[in-house]
Amino acid sequence: MIIMKFGGTSVANFEAITRTIFIIGGKLDQKPVVVVSALSKVTDLLYRISDAAAAGNETETKDLLSQLRQRHVDLAAELLSQSVLKDEAVANVNSICDSLDSIAMAVCSLGEFSDRNKAIIISKGEYLSSTIIAHAMNSKGIRTRWIDARDMMVTNKSYLKAEPDMSAIAERVPGVVSQAYEGVDAVITQGFVGVTADGEPTVLGRGGSDYSASLIGLAMDAERIEIWTDVDGVRTADPRSVKNTKYLEKISFEEAAEMAHFGAKVLHPLTIEPAVKKNIPIYVLNSMNPSGKGTAILRNELIEDGVKSVSFKENIKVINIFSTRMINTSGFLRRVFEIFSESKVSVDLISTSEANISVTVDAAQNIDSVVAQLSEFADVIVDDDKSQVSVIGKNIVRLNGMLKKTFTPLKKCNVYMISQGASFVNISFVVDREELAEVVQDLHDHLFDQTEELETF
Ligand code: ADP
Ligand code: ASP
Ligand code: MG
Questions:
Q1: How far apart are CA 285 and CA 395, in angstroms?
Q2: Fewer CB within a 10 Å sphere, N or C end of the chain?
Q3: Which pLDDT score, from 0 to 100, does residue 92 have?
Q4: Helix axes 124-139, 14-25, angle to 10 degrees
């Protein structure tokens, strides 16, 4: 069995879905479990619908809902234009849109908006795409059964960024998938979507379909997990922001996890974790160039030492905590990090000195409560408009001259924090946001022209 996950651009429109179905059709002998995202930009549109509804803006909500319906009805009609399944597909799309309309309009008039309702609204994109694609696959002769991810992807109650319940998923997925597989060639389900143990709707957080795929892969003991997207695999940096990036044929689980965690959007940061547990290889592949080799993400021992990537987070905050009295007192650090943990603010980089701790956090997180609590016993200064850059590769921290190589191209700019991961795969630092583009390009040019000269100790 293999897991094939198709992201938004791979299911964006008629052409993309036709290509995707062709790719799936070529792998039926490997028993694919197909996991799909919403059509490109649809989840963004659903967020806008939630916002408009929450603000009580009826005209805008209705307008956005009708755009959403139109796009999906048109797509279903186009994909199934020659098929007897067309009416059924369009009816199913309309019925999903009807239920979305009623929730959104209720939110609009009552002005009451829970995270639970928001999870229902933003998960509709995956329900729509999986329904349309299942019908389109059947119309092309691939006997396909549609599975509701809410029958198996059990999570906790953090409705909008839910954490999977690994043992419940391991218990439910094999039964649901094998039963669905009876008498068909393929099964399809939604990425991103989850459910609590009591049946309440949740979602896994933005980009979460990759994570769904690897959770299902783990539960099914899959041979491999394929992440089909719009680039020819993982590259040395994000090709949308950096020129002359290079293709990576293979990287380790650890390198991929660090790249994703430190900003490379090509994979959801938690995708690697389930795959590592059973050593399931992940392949990142391009649905627009299916014959390409893609990038294999494999266990550590199969990967050579050396720099693989420059990743970055464009918008972060640095929280500087000063306390001359307490820094050497035992329990001080515990108290600081308890505050972060209780407020559910996750920290990326940490550096300390005699009287100061600095940490970086993603700017999207709300840090008001953390700052208020820390200010009760320390001086706190928050620096905005900063970016975080990470050089990632197996054992780079042990490579002779690596620090010099990393910092030589940065001569002209201020570097605020430097952190070397204890696992030897990551050197990270903070720069002003306005310098980011230049820093990343210079650093990438410098590292990837000369890496072969590096020696190990
Ligand atoms: P999908 O919709 O298929 O999940 P995403 O947009 O989430 O696709 O991820 C693919 C995008 O990730 C690429 O278009 C690319 O711009 C971006 N990306 C960021 N870092 C990297 C990297 N190191 N290698 C390849 N792509 C990257
Ligand atoms: N559709 C969701 C999002 O846009 C999940 C995903 O695509 O992975 O975030
Ligand atoms: Mg993605």
A1: 26
A2: C
A3: 98
A4: 60
Sign of the torsion angle spanned by Cα atoms 430, 436, 439, 441: positive
* Amino acid type, 288: M
The average pLDDT across 301-329 equals 89
CA 43 / ligand 2 centre spacing (Å): 6
Beta pairing, strands 193-196 & 201-203: antiparallel
328: pLDDT confidence band, cut at 50, 70 and 90? Answer: low
In terms of C-beta distances under 8 Å and separation of at least 24 residues, what long-range contacts does 48-57 make, across chains too?
A: 49/100, 49/104, 49/121, 50/104, 50/107, 50/113, 50/118, 50/121, 50/122, 52/108, 53/104, 53/105, 53/107, 53/108, 53/113, 53/121, 54/107, 54/111, 54/113, 56/108, 56/109, 56/111, 57/108
Residue given tokens 């009708």 in the structure block? 66
Cβ atoms of residues 26 and 4 within 8 Å: no
Q: 215 falls in which pLDDT band (50, 70, 90)?
A: very high
Could you tell me the distance, in angstroms and rounded to a whole number, from the CA of residue 411 to the centre of ligand 2? 39
Residue 332's pLDDT is: 82
> Is pLDDT of 456 > 50?
no
Ligand 1 interacting residues, C-beta cut-off 6 A = 7-10, 37, 207, 229-231, 234-235, 237-240, 264-266, 309
Check whether 423 has a pLDDT greater than 50.
yes
Which residues form the pocket of ligand 2, taking CB atoms under 6 Å from any ligand atom?
7-8, 37-38, 43, 125, 191-192, 206-209
Ligand 2 atom with the shortest distance to the CA of 8: 7
> Among 3, 5, 36, 37, which residue has the most ligand 2 atoms within 8 Å of its CB, making it the best to mutate?
37
What is the DSSP secondary-structure string of 318-329?
A: EEEEE-TTTTTS
Q: What is the pLDDT of residues 170-192, one digit of tens each?
A: 999 999 999 999 999 999 999 99
Q: Which amino acid is at 417?
A: M
Paired tokens of 278: 């059973």
Q: What is the pTM of this model?
A: 0.94
CA of 358 to the centre of ligand 3 (A): 30
Tokens 């020659």 -> residue: 82
H or E element in which residue 349 lies? strand 347-353
